[in-house]
Amino acid sequence: MTSKVDETLSYEQARDELIEVVRRLEAGGTSLEDSLALWERGEELAKVCRRWLEGARARLDAALAEEESGEEGE
């Protein structure tokens, strides 16, 4: 479940935090509990990024469809 705070993150903020989470996981040296918490946070951040990207794709698709329908009407 994504928190309310995550819903206010921009794509860039979520991506940057996700990069940091991955860096920390790859570096190792954390306890199992901390690693699991980082993994869970990474999953939440990935969902935020995915929602942003899906929204951008939908906007592009809508703009392209509108452009095509405008060309057909000419």
UniProtKB/TrEMBL annotation:
Belongs to the XseB family. Its main location: cytoplasm. Bidirectionally degrades single-stranded DNA into large acid-insoluble oligonucleotides, which are then degraded further into small acid-soluble oligonucleotides. Keywords: Cytoplasm, Exonuclease, Hydrolase, Nuclease. It is found in: Cytoplasm. The keyword Cytoplasm applies. Heterooligomer composed of large and small subunits. Signal peptide: none annotated. This is Exodeoxyribonuclease 7 small subunit. The lineage of its organism: Bacteria, Bacillati, Actinomycetota, Actinomycetes, Kitasatosporales. One of its GO terms (molecular function) is exodeoxyribonuclease VII activity. The gene is xseB. It comes from Streptomyces camelliae.
